[in-house]
Amino acid sequence: MAGVQMMPAAVDVAGLRKTRAGAAPSGGSSVSTTSLFAGDYRRRARRPSCSVRALRQSRSRGGLGIVCNLGGQYDDTFDDVQLQLMNYFTYKAVRTVLTQLYEMNPSNYRWFYNFVAVNKPTDGKLFLRALSKERQELAERVMITRLHLYGKWIKKCDHAKMYEMISDENLTLMRERLMETVIWPTDDTNTEKIG
Does residue 133 register a pLDDT over 80? Predict the structure, then answer.
């Protein structure tokens, strides 16, 4: 499929290793995992997303059980969504301030552009900390712009419309997938042979 990249899932093989009298497996670690994102050595999963374990129930049958924890769990909070929104509004505020500086203060624009190129505004909190150490007035301007943009978005955001858009897109995607998987009879095939 074009545009789809398969990534290996993290696998816990520590339970499969046989150790002598409770000794730790070689390497000193009791858990051997690979990153969920291929080639990304910076991200370490807190727990494996999928693990293979020798379950006591399945030992009697002589097999392994596969436990998969890929499903998201939202108890009562959506803290990750709130964080993403804050980071996105920081990004939008940086773009807005860059545009304003480009029009009104080219020297500050050049400095801020270079700062943004080195310090990506993907993590709003870290970005604003670094900016406030360098130029406090620009950091305050980004913070005020971020708050203003959020207030503007809250007034314009129609939650019912957003829900409907998500629902419609889900339906469209499921319909497209169904149409891809259905095997349609061809005109050449004569299914009604008589005699």
Answer: yes
Do 33 and 19 contact (CB within 8 A), yes or no?
Answer: no
The CATH number that applies at residue 130 is 1.10.1200.210
Domain assignment present for residue 62? The answer is: yes
25 DSSP 8-state letter: P
Look at the chain and report how many structural domains it folds into: 2
Q: For residue 126, what are the domain limits?
A: 79-156
Question: What type of residue is 190?
Answer: N
21 assigned to some structural domain: no
- Verify that 43 and 89 share a domain, yes or no: no
What are the pLDDT digits (tens) for 135-187? 999 999 999 999 999 999 999 999 999 999 999 999 999 999 998 888 877 77
| Average pLDDT, integer, range 73-90 | 84
DSSP class per residue in 117-150? HHS-TTSHHHHHHHHHHH-HHHHHHHHHHHHHHH
Kindly give the residue spans of alpha helices, DSSP state H, lying in the chain.
Answer: 56-59, 79-104, 106-118, 124-134, 136-156, 159-181
Element (H, E) at 66: strand 65-68
